[in-house]
Design goal:
Layout (H helix, E strand, L loop, with lengths): L8 H7 L38 E4 L5 E4 L6 E4 H10 L5 E3 L22 E4 L7 H6 L4 E6 L13 H4 L5 E5 L5 H14 L7 H23 L4 E7 L3 E5 L5 H8 L3 E2 L10 E5 L10 E5 L7 H4 L3 H4 L2 H4 L3 E4 L7 H17 L5
Parallel strand pairs: 3-4, 3-6, 4-5, 6-7, 8-10, 8-12, 12-13
Antiparallel strand pairs: 1-2, 8-9, 9-11
Helix pairs in contact: 2-5, 5-7, 6-11
Length: 346
């Protein structure tokens, strides 16, 4: 996504920081947002047909409609990456796509960003004129707070949604598997083959990683894990009940720190003088481009003195994962390894 270069107060209060936080298999998987496929199994999404009407009921309760299955899909970068993993290719993206060195942002996943139109690479950026010129047929993004569409600027939202129907998928206060399932439903409605080997292999990997994490958490019972994001002035301690990934990890037995004073719905903000408020054996640190990384925090005495930091038990946390089995399996595997290796130090 594109967040501001620093974690500003206004950004955090408005959006919560989300707060701070191989080649495709044959033909059917490369649908380029077209083709026909089955609809969702639970009835929440609509139907896909190469020649007939298309509908999909999103997590706002709104039903997106089109005379035919949308082919020109524009999506938030992480959303496009998730759809790609299920076999749907988008035309354009908005949100963090390229790093300063030109390489793909982590949220771009396996997207070939050189083949995509980028409508905006930072928070507040969305080139409406370029979007309109694409003749878009569908816009898709996440929802973090209520029904707000992530990275669709409020000031131009009405105009943006006048060109094509929009779909919002809720990614907070639900578990990771629910979000992945919703993206799978959407992808299927757009023509993806969910039984393609690439998709089923990714699901099997995700399920195996989840069981490995469950066993690791059981074997290292009592290990306290803190999920956080760092900025120049504050350490944001995230509420595991809000984030879909943390909620899922918790259901597998990971013992997370639960902050006592959550503001803005996502986290507790601690001045660096209070960084040690919650003892933790392992820290998951937001690794998005807008958040400070361990090398950036090394000069902060209170960070350096945290038991987990002193023990070298700090692991990267992609607090806005791409919601697919392929996107999340490596994250679960990495956490399982971190939990297996960590020792109680707090």
């Amino acid at each position: 996504m594109s967040t501001p270069s620093s974690l500003s107060t206004s950004f955090l209060s408005r959006r919560g920081l989300l707060a701070a936080g191989g080649a495709l298999g044959a033909g059917a998987l490369l649908t380029a947002c077209g083709g026909g496929s089955e609809g969702a199994s639970d009835g929440d999404s609509g139907s896909a047909s190469g020649s007939g009407p298309w509908t999909f009921k999103d997590d706002r309760g709104e039903t997106a409609k089109a005379p035919r299955t949308p082919k020109k899909v524009v999506a938030f970068t992480g959303t496009a990456a998730a759809l790609h993993d299920f076999g749907v290719e988008c035309t354009a993206v908005f949100g963090p796509t390229r790093l300063k060195d030109g390489k793909p942002d982590p949220q771009a996943g396996d997207l070939d960003i050189g083949k995509l139109t980028v409508l905006g690479n930072a928070w507040g950026e969305f080139n409406v004129e370029k979007y309109a010129a694409l003749s878009p047929e569908l816009l898709v993004t996440n929802m973090l707070q209520g029904t707000e569409l992530w990275y669709v600027p409020d000031e131009s939202k009405k105009k943006i949604l006048s060109f094509a129907p929009g779909v919002g998928i809720n990614v907070t206060k639900v578990t990771l598997t629910r979000v992945i399932a919703r993206y799978a439903e959407l992808a299927a409605s757009l023509g993806a083959d969910l039984q393609a080997k690439r998709v089923t292999d990714a699901k099997a990997r995700f399920e195996k990683a989840s069981e490995t994490l469950r066993r690791a958490a059981r074997a290292n019972k009592g290990l306290k894990v803190l999920a956080a994001s760092g900025s120049a002035d504050l350490l944001y301690v995230s509420d595991p009940g809000v984030y879909a990934d943390l909620a899922y990890f918790k259901s597998l037995g990971v013992d997370f720190v639960v902050p006592g004073t959550v503001t803005g719905g996502f986290f507790e903000s601690l001045g660096w003088e209070n960084a040690g408020k919650y003892p933790a054996d392992l820290i998951l640190l937001d690794n998005r481009t807008a958040a400070l990384q361990p090398k950036d925090l090394a000069a902060k005495p209170t960070w350096a003195e945290l038991p987990a930091v002193k023990a070298g038990q700090v692991a990267p946390w992609l607090s806005e994962p791409r919601y697919s089995y392929a996107g999340c399996a490596p994250l679960v595997e990495a956490l399982a390894e971190a939990v297996q290796k960590a020792k109680k130090v707090a």
